[in-house]
Amino acid sequence: MNKVFLSGNLTRDPEVRYTQAGKPYARMGIAVNRPYSKEKVTDFFNLTAWDKTAEFCGRYLHKGSRVLVEGRLQTSNYENKDGVKVNAVDITVDNIEFADNKRSTSGDDNNSAPANTSYQERRQPAPPKKTYDDFGGEPIDPDDTPF
Fold it and tell me: What's the pTM?
């Protein structure tokens, strides 16, 4: 089984391109902190997303976005322009989600989803909180209770 889960911040804006067949893909980078090391260590990985996931990344994510990534490792070997063999490990993204919460965005609109999303239009305000004195109906007369 080849499965990875990463939580981190994007190191660059997703770059969306299209194959010759018209299939979208997005490339971006992620920085992941190692929480259990004695000194602060960060690992950097390249991410590649395809199809609708790529379009989502290009539309809603940007450098600095905190994300959760589910994907798989993919290795590749090639020679660079200097003739040196290079081994690379990339993550192919299967699923990516926002990890920022609205409280941590400090009012910057770039860190949140656009205001005109269908989810926000469907969302209804929360009902008012009830107090201990409010039972949601008419007052209860103790003489009317059967016990």
Answer: 0.65
